[in-house]
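Hey, I'm writing a tutorial for new members on how sequence and structure tokens pair up, and I'd like a real worked example in the thread rather than a made-up one. If someone can provide the structure for the chain below, I'll link this post from the tutorial.
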Amino acid sequence: MVQKISAVRGMNDIHGEGADAFDYLVHTAETTFKQYGYRSIRLPIVEKTELFCRSIGEVTDIVEKEMYTFSDRNNESLTLRPEGTAGCVRAVVQNGLAYNQIQKLFYTGPMFRYERPQKGRYRQFHQVGVEVFGLATPDVDAELIVLTARLWEKLGLENLELQINSLGSQAARVAYREKLVVYLTDYKDQLDEDSLRRLESNPLRILDTKNPAMKELVEGAPKLMDHLDAESAEHFEQLKAHLDDLGIEYVINPNLVRGLDYYNRTVFEWITTELGAQGTVCAGGRYDGLVEQIGGKATPAVGFAMGIERLTALLMDHNKVPVLAQPNVYVVLVGDNVQRPGFVIAEMVREALPHINVQMNCGGGSFKSQFKKADRSGARYALVLGEQEVSDKVVAIKPLRETSEQVLVSWDDLTEHLAQLMPV
């Protein structure tokens, strides 16, 4: 027997209800983004390695440990994208979209990180991302948060907690960093291995440690919020005022710093307690210096990314997954000479009523077996076509989800009748 080939560890097939949830989430997200005036952008999966070293930071865990990097035939170092923001910034710079323009963009697709696979954390995972270029004011920060809150409402997701913080300006962060290093150095013997490594390279990440043994130490650290520059403090107050006006509840988390070097000022995360350790389902913030860092002219920017696998797990756990492709109508064909007219009728309905999904029985089968398939499909109605119906040019419409009687409708009146049964 030939040995089966399995998927690469941490890179999973998405099928069945998982695929339905994935499609529903992406469809709902993209529809919501368009409501707010955001446009789609499609980005490459592979980028030059230098892009991520320059944007994410060479001393981050992602660049040091997690990237899938390889040399191509021209000996150029390339990387499967570990996140979407850097590639989007590269695209707007390269295509002249960033300078002196406002761009509101969204994208969807796979990301890749070499991590230890566990629930909610995979080596190939998918994100929906939103990025705004050319606006420095806190109202757009608030808009992104409001937009995500609106999406949770549409999806029927509850019990998500919004955490916010401000990292201040780059200059304020540098000054705070020095104070934090002095504090942590005094307690160096209490730092775990990861924190010792980050003490010199990225000390702010120590504040976000998940090690319970370091909780008391971190809580006693100087607070970045107490060291904000005046402009950043005012920016943060205005953001909170916008959220208060709209009734969006939030928690200020002074230890929320985000894992990437390019953030400044506003950072935020939406958290759930229902997925174990992988509780962050959406995260983002402002990164005003990144466009210039990647070679463009100075341009303010802000964005977020949400993890599709984690959100779809929530949707499935709460039975919030409608099947977008589920048929409204199932065509049952009984007899030797009904297949061809059945095809014509199915296409006639699809063309006239695009909001109605039509599934036609293929492969034959008895009257009884076809009705079993129709019932399992989830359709509301069966269109039954036998040899007598073809001769009389009528179709029997049989309800599958209600107790009303079957009716005969002429082919000419079929689409009008279905439109009344299932309006847009």
